[in-house]
Write a structure and sequence with these properties.
By secondary structure, the protein is an alpha/beta fold.
């Protein structure tokens, strides 16, 4: 298996079984570092531009391939991505696709692959122009999501779609318990890693180019973590004081848990997540930075199974959501998420708000967060909660890095270079 056939295997898994890209990467594990990087570029690139690539491929094929030949379809998607978006020389792209057909034991497809990709080369300008006539292909998003964003954000929907298709920067969070951001910037410069301080987060650093985390000075020792600037605001907004008792609900993979403990070492934190396997990532992160939290594998919506009866002074509810704010990092969200999913997610968010609110002490604060941009998950969700919860009070956020909404603050994808995120701060009346 080489980078090409490994990418085909991953894409076949995602497109056929609807597994996420992150869950389907097993075929990449045995590749060299260089081949793995190429395969990841192919996988993420195809999923980022799938609507346009599929639109063009259907025209080039004339009729669909048989279901048993879906791997050839994935192979052709990779070939088109190489021709349209990568700097691979055209003859190399065609030849590697034909060789991949042989490696996949689909020798019958060699002629088809060669013909389709050479036709794509000849018709590339016309194919790309034709994509502009189809709304989904033009913006490389499912039509339901394009229309949903048009309705939700009539002045910004195009910017959101374009930002979703851009490559996300690699952003770091300096562990303030271990050193200053200025000191860490000097360490990066000494390691010949180009970087700049983030505009809004006091501990954020944006890299000019992504790199392996273990190439970062002090990463293994917990001096720095990878986290988008937008996600870094959670710890600042919750503003946990010393001796606080904090619940981080839906905590995995643990970035916000770690940040809370970096800001205020010694606080009591219960990090809760339904997935025991994802919770292990929280433990690994905390071990790396040298911090401690009590991790609990349980359903946050069923506190009778895990709560000890002692109220929390602060709760961070990083709620399950559509992920529509982080599509640029997870382009498979566009393919995997369905319009029917939104109602179920809204209901789950509502259930979590109602269930966790009684666990908050009078005078305590809850920070509701999502990496979504759909109003029904965000401002409308909080408005509904406030209307049915007499002892809940909305705390206005005076921030310059987000759009102020009726309730909470919304960062749209690409705004100030950040991921899309929503925050609302709630206080329980004493």
């Amino acid at each position: 298996m080489n980078a090409y056939t490994a990418a085909v295997a991953v894409l076949h898994d995602v497109l056929e079984t609807r597994r996420s890209l992150s869950a389907a990467t097993a075929p990449l594990h045995n590749l060299s570092a260089q081949e793995r990087a190429v395969a990841q570029e192919m996988c993420f690139g195809v999923m980022r531009w799938w609507w346009g690539l599929d639109f063009s491929l259907r025209g080039l094929l004339g009729k669909p391939l048989k279901a048993k030949d879906h791997d050839v379809y994935c192979l052709l998607l990779v070939g088109l991505y190489q021709l349209f978006y990568m700097r691979t020389p055209s003859h190399a792209a065609v030849n590697s696709a034909v060789e991949a057909a042989v490696m996949l034991k689909k020798e019958w497809a060699k002629g088809l692959v060669n013909a389709v990709l050479r036709n794509a080369l000849r018709q590339q300008e016309a194919l790309l122009a034709a994509q502009q006539t189809d709304l989904a292909a033009r913006y490389s998003h499912p039509l339901w999501l394009v229309k949903t964003l048009q309705q939700a954000w009539p002045a910004q929907w195009q910017e959101i779609l374009l930002a979703n298709n851009a490559r996300a920067p690699m952003t770091l969070r300096v562990n303030a318990a271990r050193g200053s951001r200025d000191d860490y910037l000097r360490k990066l410069a000494h390691a010949n890693i180009q970087a700049r301080a983030c505009e809004f987060s006091a501990v954020g650093i944006a890299l000019e180019e992504a790199c392996d985390v273990y190439a970062l000075p002090g990463f293994a020792q917990g001096e720095v973590s990878v986290q988008d600037e937008a996600a870094q605001f959670a710890a600042f907004l919750l503003a946990v004081p010393a001796r606080a008792r904090v619940l981080d609900a839906c905590a995995a993979p643990g970035g916000k848990t770690a940040h809370l403990l970096e800001k205020m070492p010694g606080i009591v934190v219960h990090a809760l997540d339904k997935s025991a396997s994802r919770l292990r990532k929280v433990d690994e992160t905390l071990a790396r930075i040298g911090a401690h939290a009590t991790t609990i594998a349980a359903d946050a919506a069923r506190p009778s199974a895990w709560w000890d009866g002692q109220a929390y002074t602060h709760i961070l509810l990083d709620a399950p959501c559509s992920g529509t704010g982080v599509i640029r990092r997870n382009p498979d969200i566009k393919y995997l998420r369905r319009s029917d999913d939104i109602g179920a997610l809204v209901a789950e968010q509502s259930r979590l708000l109602d269930t966790l609110w009684p666990l908050l002490a009078p005078g305590g604060r809850m920070l509701y967060a999502t990496c979504a941009v759909l109003p029904e998950e965000n401002t409308q969700q909080i408005a509904a909660f406030l209307s049915r919860t007499a002892d809940a009070r909305h705390v206005a956020l005076d921030v310059s890095w987000a759009l102020k909404t009726e309730f909470g603050a919304q960062i749209l994808p690409g705004m100030h270079g950040m991921d899309g995120f929503y925050y609302a701060l709630l206080e329980k009346r004493a």
